[in-house]
Amino acid sequence: MEDNFKFKGRRRILASELKKKGIINNQIINSIETIPRHLFIDPGLSEQAYIDKALPIDSNQTISQPYTVAFQTQLLNPLPGEKILEIGTGSGYQTSILDFLKTDVYTIERNHNLFRLTSKLFKKLNINPVKFKYGDGYKGLTDDCPFDGIIVTAGSPYVPENLLKQLKIGGRMVVPIGKETQVMTKIIRISVKDFKKETFGDFKFVPMLDKKD
Ligand code: SAH
Predict the structure, then answer these.
(1) Per-domain boundaries in the chain
(2) Which of 69, 71, 86, 153 maximizes ligand 1 atoms within 8 Å of its Cβ, making it the mutation to test the pocket?
(3) CA 163, 110, 136 angle in degrees (round to 5)?
(4) Are β-strands 147-152 and 167-177 bridged in parallel, bridged antiparallel, or unpaired?
(5) Measuring CA to CA, which residue among 120, 123, 124, 108 is closest to residue 162?
């Protein structure tokens, strides 16, 4: 399945809906208008690709709702050339938005099947994260830190400690915190020891799984 005018038209409508819902960052709106979300999901669902809702992907996971992706990205506010770590690659849609925004993206996925499928898709779509790692997001990337930004796209029951340590001073992390539902949380590292925390309402994500899960 490739791109076509029907999908392009639907993306423009989706982008204008997201503007109305409060996405004011033009580059993020451009990314929603440009990136063919239908290529990140099962072809059987492509008619639903530009409805603003989460959809199932492989291995019982989900591609987040476009509004949620745009909202998290807007909170992160990644600038071109910044080093960004994404936890939970999943379909790769959020990764491709970060790539579109010209950041240096590092991304981690713990599900091997998704890791394999999404690696292939990245090659096909010419999306080039600096690193795509099969591993545990709670650990982060000790060899590549510190990061300007960290975006967690699965619901974490608590703030992942290791990830806080991998932020630059002035770096920020956007992470949904909670078990059944999650509170969108932005944490800014203001010094070696101090962090400032703000919250932005309730969301629902698939869980960020631990070793024991
Ligand atoms: N960013 C994705 C969202 C996928 S859903 C997208 O745009 O499609 C969340 C993803 O987090 C799932 O793929 C799940 O397998 C992954 N995940 C869950 N726990 C994880 C962990 N501890 N480390 C890395 N990835 C994890």
Answers:
(1) 5-203
(2) 153
(3) 30
(4) parallel
(5) 108
Does any ligand 1 atom lie closer than 6 A to the CB of residue 17?
Answer: no
Ligand 1 centroid – CA 192 distance (Å): 28
Helix (H, G, I), strand (E, B) or coil at 131: strand
> Mean pLDDT of all residues in the chain?
97
- Does domain 5-203 bear CATH number 3.40.50.150? yes
Task: Write the pLDDT tens digit of every residue in 46-96.
Answer: 999 999 999 999 999 999 999 999 999 999 999 999 999 999 999 999 999
Task: List the catalytic residue out of 46, 59, 64, 91.
Answer: 64
Alpha carbon distances (Å) from 80 to 105, 157, 167, 176? 11, 31, 17, 24
Question: Hey, which bits of the chain come out as E strands?
Answer: 55-56, 62-63, 83-87, 104-109, 131-134, 147-152, 167-177, 182-189, 195-203
Q: Is the CB of 66 under 6 A from ligand 1?
A: no
pLDDT band at 29 (very low <50, low <70, confident <90, very high): very high
Cα end-to-end span (Å), the chain: 35
Dihedrals φ, ψ of 152, to 5°? -105, 125
